[in-house]
Amino acid sequence: MCALAFVIPNKNPIVVEGRLDGIISIEPKGTKGFGYDPLFYIPQLKKHAAELSQEEKSAISHRGNALRELKTHLEKMLDEK
């Protein structure tokens, strides 16, 4: 999970979360990524994070999901002005 907050003085903060659900496996797989990526299995893709290309990982990552959500809120805020 990734949580982001965007704060402007005298305004309500924008707080968003991004998730990537998966399970920790016993057997590592893949050579891409770092840290826990070889152990993080993503059932919806039937792959470990370390088996994904950078493009695939960016499209589903918890950080990317949080940033996309924040972008949506900021665009809405700008449209209201």
TrEMBL record:
The lineage of its organism: Bacteria, Bacillati, Mycoplasmatota, Mollicutes, Haloplasmatales. PANTHER family: INOSINE TRIPHOSPHATE PYROPHOSPHATASE, INOSINE TRIPHOSPHATE PYROPHOSPHATASE/HAM1 PROTEIN. It is an enzyme of class 3 (hydrolase). SUPFAM superfamilies: ITPase-like. One of its GO terms (cellular component) is cytosol. One of its GO terms (molecular function) is ribonucleoside triphosphate phosphatase activity. This is DITP-XTP pyrophosphatase protein. Signal peptide: none annotated. Its EC number is 3.6.1.15. InterPro entries: ITPase-like_fam, RdgB/HAM1. Belongs to the HAM1 NTPase family. Keywords: Hydrolase. GO terms for biological process: nucleoside triphosphate catabolic process.
